[in-house]
Amino acid sequence: MDDEVEVVVAHSERATLRVGDVYLKVDADRARVDVEVEAMALAPVPTPEVLWRKPPVLALAALRGVTLGRLGGLATASPAAWTAAGATIRQLHEAPLPSWTGRAGRSGGTLAEELDRECQLLVVTGLLPGELVTRNRQVAEAALREWTPAFTHGDLQIAHVFLDGDEVTGIIDWSEAGQGDPLYDLATFSLGHEEHLDDLLVGYGGDVDLEVVRAWWALRSLLAVRWLSEHGFDPFAPGCEVDVLKSLR
Fold first, then answer.
1. 42, 17 in Cβ contact below 8 A?
2. Which parts of the sequence belong to the Aminoglycoside phosphotransferase domain (predicted)?
3. Residue 127 is part of a domain; what is its CATH number?
4. Distance (Å, rounded) from C-alpha 75 to C-alpha 77?
5. 3-state secondary structure (DSSP) of residue 178
6. How many domains is the chain partitioned into structurally?
7. Total-model pTM
8. In a domain? residue 7
């Protein structure tokens, strides 16, 4: 119903509401919204139409179609849909670079320090067993290497990509976009859905280092568990971050 307000996501940093065919994003961090608007203007892939902006609110038109799924849920889209998504991601990664660094562009040294601190906290607080953390910290090491920067989305979850049949109709949530490691996007997109990785890479094309993709699965999950737990999400739910960590060797 157009007169109903749906809470899409809400936590202490930001919230997204849907009213009919309009999404209202509320974010007190103006710089983050600036990045989102500029990234959508620059990206050579379908993005939502900006209807209006009045800080701290950004109004976006709803996209046609549905998402491929979500982490921890079934991803029932066809292999062709995953291949189409891969081709769209490649189109983004080959675009001219934005002028700023995004979430996927943090340096290896900075990431290593952040990861080591987070791993220690996961063990000290008892959130995860030490053996599980240590094993995945070793897997994550392969992501901490030099890479050629690309135009990255920075939070390319499958819930952020919409398709109508096998056609990509748009990508949402660009606040983490910027120059970064393209394999971070591929890993984020395939996180928890390894069974669809081959179809994704058919569309993406080129040589992709699967060891680095797996390393990003471990790294992203290790960094996310505590934040998710503290913000009302459940990384222990079936198929989510903790299950991803348990599956990696």
1. no
2. 43-205
3. 3.90.1200.10
4. 6
5. strand
6. 1
7. 0.94
8. no
